[in-house]
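If I may wish for something, please walk me through the protein I am sending here so I can picture the backbone:
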Amino acid sequence: MNEIIEQTEMYVRNELGEDATGHDWFHVDRVRRTALHIAKQEQVGDPFIIEMAALLHDIPDEKLNESAEAGKNKLDLFFQTISLPEEVQNSINQIIESISYKGGRKTELETIEAKIVQDADRLDAIGAIGIARTFAYGGKKGQPIYDPNLNVREEMSLEEYRKGKSTSIHHFYEKLLKLKDLLNTKTAKELAESRNQMMVLFLDQFYLEWDGQDQ
């Protein structure tokens, strides 16, 4: 199993190592470490499936591929290079397919492993790291930092969520500040408190500086 983990690490490093949207190898590694920490604290889940799903969770992401289908094909091709029982592959695939935010539409997670990997991925989207990743992704997409004339989008389709007009600051309200209440495990909820507070403080300071009220 260690050999498969090492092969997977190498593959993900090669695929995402140079990513500039906040979905790089360091993000993947943080999600992996956080997921294993949650599993250990909660004393649940299969560590191998959790680690593999965490390592591979961004490989088929449609944001990082030409299409959702192209991403799925990429993951399928990787699975052909490692020796894993079909049921284990299916478990990993099922986790990866079910954990994405997708505009806030709730997907019922079938396993504790999926809940843990989703929590770890969402924790990396908030706090100081989450703030940095938000602006990295927004800049890569050509999105403005902020436009006070735009409204926060509440209900939206996946298409609107992916391609609708928004800003990096709006993204905090459309997704990031909601994540604390969408976590699955006690450990993740505890970790989220200080990270969420960090974002609230950042936004307070941002508006002060934007309006010149800190002078």
Residues 98 and 108 are 8 Å apart (CA to CA). The radius of gyration is 18 Å. The chain is about 60% helix and 0% strand.
